[in-house]
Amino acid sequence: MFFYLSKWITLLFSLYPAAYFGCLLLALLAARKTKYRKTRTLFLIGYLLFGFCSTDVCADLLLRPLEETYPTMETTLASHGAADGIIVLGGMMDPVAQRGAIPEFTDGANRLFAGLHLVRANHARAMILSGGSGLILQGGPAEASLLRDWLIAEGLARKDQVIAEVQSRNTAENAINSNRIAQQMGWKRVYLVTSAFHMPRSMAIFKKLTNLELIPICTDYRSSAFFSGPEAVFPSAHGIQKTWIGMKEYLGLLAYWMKGYV
């Protein structure tokens, strides 16, 4: 029930971009000279607020506290030795767009490549790719199995280096199902790989639901590493997307806290 409820809430809040353009239309209508000055002012304030939320400046304010909770991958590897295994959380491809054997990668693909780097650099013997279908109706291919098959077919990894965990639909299930496989493999100390903005929630959930010693490997950063200039202060679709990612992650933390997972 928690999985389905979280998906419907996400869909509800994902109307944010449409709301921005709706506010623009309403603001233009309200700007006409009418006797409803307070209403006009509210619409204009709403429009400006949505405009700010669609900038990189706003997105960075939301994302940076999440992404700077844990150190970068380079810093972490410099201070930790080898681990028993690696757990890479799903969210790296678009199942709806998938049409062939080559994965339709999304921005989260860095998770896969970070895990692959750890394996190939002998930081651990093998990695678990954790992720089935995150769709409400559970359609499309299982992400983990498709990615595993692709890595092996391309010669990027051996069969004994990649384990596909295909049952998980959210982060809590990632933790439960990956922990079961890790116990079967005799793993105690693991690298946990996910997007930097997703790492605070992931670490909290894995600590709550597993008995593994966790080493966070952050990748797929979305906040700006430096101020880009005028582009950062103008509204854009990219800014809207990043702001929505930050909002979604804070909502996820709240939902999982209410559920008792964190």
Main β-sheet description: 5 strands, parallel
Structural class: alpha/beta
The order of strands across the largest sheet is: 3-2-1-4-5
CATH architecture of the largest domain: 3-Layer(aba) Sandwich
From the structure provided, what is the oligomeric state, counting identical versus distinct chains? single chain
- Report the span from N to C terminus: 18 Å
What ranges have pLDDT less than 50 throughout 5 or more consecutive residues?
A: none
Number of DSSP strands? 5
Total DSSP helices: 10
Average of per-residue pLDDT values: 86
Q: What's the structural domain tally? A: 2
| Portion in strands | 5-15%
Q: What is the C-alpha radius of gyration, as a whole number of Å?
A: 21 Å
Outline the structure in words.
This protein has 262 residues and is of the alpha/beta class. It contains ten helices and five strands. The chain has a five-stranded parallel sheet, sandwiched between helices. The mean pLDDT is 86.
What is the secondary structure topology, with strand pairs?
Layout (H helix, E strand, L loop, with lengths): L1 H12 L2 H15 L6 H17 L2 H12 L5 H7 L5 E5 L20 H11 L6 E4 L12 H11 L8 E4 L5 H15 L3 E7 L3 H11 L3 E7 L17 H23 L3
Parallel strand pairs: 1-2, 1-4, 2-3, 4-5
Helix pairs in contact: 1-10, 2-3, 4-10, 8-9
Nutshell version of this structure?
The protein is α/β, with parallel strands linked by helices.
